[in-house]
Design brief:
This protein folds into 2 domains: about 5-225 and about 270-350 and about 410-465, Alpha Horseshoe (Serine Threonine Protein Phosphatase 5, Tetratricopeptide repeat), CATH 1.25.40.10; about 225-270. The chain is globular and about 95 Å long. The chain has 16 helices and 9 strands. It is α+β, with helices and mostly antiparallel strands. Helices cover about 50% and strands about 15% of the residues. Strand 2 (about 295-300) and strand 3 form a beta hairpin. It has helices spanning about 10-30, 45-60, 65-75, 85-95, 100-115, 120-125, 140-160, 160-175, 190-200, 205-220, 225-240, 250-270, 280, 340-345, 350-380, 380-400, and strands spanning about 285-290, 295-300, 305-310, 320-325, 330, 415-425, 430-440, 440-450, 460-465. The chain has a 4-stranded antiparallel beta sheet with strand order 5-4-7-8, with no helix packed on it. A 3-stranded mixed beta sheet has the order 6-1-9, covered by helices on one side.
């Protein structure tokens, strides 16, 4: 019988140490000679890298994955503060072309960088008045780190490494729990579902049942019917957090509203049709993941761009999908377990937001102070006026030199959501027809081939819909 290390290890602390060693050693062993020092480059050079990265992202979304890979490999030739981001996107490209080994290696390398790569100088500069936040090493938001572990775990599971895949799904949930507001802590259903799958493979029935329960709970909390109610609860919790000097009456009013919302939540959840989720609770050896939509993006707002928001990209996808297996069996999609846009837009604020707010206040004060001194210089006149003018110009210069723009670097090669289709297929080749519908109208259809291996714990099939090419008249070619 196969020796299973994790059936002996019960402590998560021990598990986290082992996964760190497991991930670090292969990367260092395979490419220690390629370890690079951080290259110091200017803001202008960083912008030039982003221009090239934007070209690669456009190629990816146009279905030209190989061309995108060529650009990303040039972008990571030197180790810069943007390298972890470009590695995330490069790994996605390799997975898109079906090069599982390279995708897995790149994601492992990225995990090591995000977990351990730290540059004190760039971090110190980023929080100073004169340094931009984007000058520090990219670490990603909770949803981006969760997606990295999710993708890596899926590739490890597809490669037969159940134990390290399980550790990845646990790490992804830890990353997802790094939120300001507890309301949305660890509600990434696909992570819990995959964790349950790993426990089932290891014959840990109790842990499997617990993880399935968590996955179904996450599905309920993120269901479109429930989301608006959760949003209202989120706003109330923010009021409590922001108004710590509230009177007893105000506190009681909020507490009563929260009780009513919790009652409304329970009633709404009780009406959900959970039979929709039945396929994930049955035996399956294949998981088809349909890539839909585009990743959320980060945008600046505020007087100086000191505030940052994560917003969903416009959705032009179909709202329903059907799958025909070997021209015999129709399968519907399962939504709501891997809504990456939801994960991105519900995580709350960051510690850096407070730093940027203080810097913006200082910049605004310096600017206004300089204006007032310059305006009064003419009234004073003489040498005194010149002195006041000089101080005013200095204040204006300080304001101009103060950099407060929020960092909006983000992993652009993510879907809005991954649609799940759990399948139980025999070993060998299978044809899967995929149809996209807008309500009852078929928008497009295409076919893929899947080769199923009985040796894999789980056959993972990533489907990125082929790009529809149109002529100048907007007609499909």
């Amino acid at each position: 019988m196969t020796f299973r290390l994790y059936s002996i290890i019960k402590s998560w602390k021990v598990l986290s140490i082992i996964i760190a060693i497991c991930f670090t050693m292969p990367v260092v062993a395979a490419g220690a000679e390629n370890q690079k020092e951080l290259k110091k480059i200017s803001a202008k050079e960083l912008n030039q890298l982003e221009v090239r990265a934007t070209e690669a992202r456009k190629l990816f979304h146009a279905g030209q994955f190989e061309q995108a890979i060529d650009i990303y490999n040039l972008l990571i030739a030197d180790m810069t503060v943007n390298s972890p981001l470009y590695l995330c996107e490069l790994g996605t490209c390799y997975w898109a072309v079906g090069d599982i080994d390279k995708a897995k290696r790149i994601f492992m390398q990225t995990e090591v960088l995000l977990r351990g790569f730290y540059d004190a100088k760039s971090e110190k500069k980023a929080v100073s008045l004169w340094g931009a936040e984007s000058s520090k090493v990219y670490k990603g938001d909770p949803y981006e780190r969760s997606c990295l572990y999710l993708f890596l775990g899926l590739l490890l599971l597809d490669s037969g490494d159940v134990d390290n895949a399980l550790a990845c799904f646990k790490s992804a949930q830890l990353a997802d729990s790094d939120v300001v507001n507890q309301l949305y802590r660890s509600d990434f259903g696909l992570l819990q579902l995959l964790e349950a799958y790993c426990y089932s493979w290891r014959d840990q029935d109790d842990m499997h049942a617990r993880s399935i329960e968590l996955a179904l709970s996450s599905f309920q909390q993120t269901h479109p019917q429930v989301k608006p109610i959760m949003g209202r609860k989120q706003e109330l919790l923010k009021q409590v957090q922001n108004n710590k000097k509230a009177s007893e009456k105000e506190k009681k009013d909020v507490a009563d509203k929260l009780k009513n919302i919790d009652k409304e939540l329970a009633e709404s959840i009780s009406t959900l049709k959970m039979s929709y989720c039945k396929p994930i609770q049955e035996n399956f050896n294949t998981l088809l993941l349909l890539w839909t939509g585009k990743s959320p993006v980060k945008q600046r707002y505020g007087q100086y761009g000191e505030n940052r928001a994560i917003v969903k990209a416009p959705n032009t996808e179909a709202n329903h999908y059907e799958f025909l297996i070997d021209d015999l069996v129709w399968m519907d999609e399962i939504k709501g377990f891997a809504d990456i846009a939801h994960q991105a837009t519900t995580r709350g604020g960051r510690q850096m937001d407070n730093v940027l707010a203080s810097q913006a206040a200082f910049k605004g004060f310096s600017d206004s102070f300089g204006d007032s001194l310059i305006d009064s210089a003419d009234d004073v006149g003489g040498y005194g006026g010149l002195a006041i003018l000089a101080v005013g110009l200095i204040a204006k210069g300080i304001a101009a030199a103060t950099k407060v723009e929020a960092d909006i670097r983000c992993w652009r090669l993510l879907p809005e959501e991954l649609i799940l289709v759990p399948l139980n297929l025999k070993t060998g080749s299978h044809k899967i027809k995929i149809a996209h519908y807008d309500l009852i109208l078929k928008k497009r259809a295409y076919e893929i081939e899947a080769n199923i291996s009985e040796e894999k714990p789980l056959n993972v099939i990533l489907v990125i819909p082929p790009v529809v090419v149109k002529n100048k008249k907007g007609q499909k070619i």
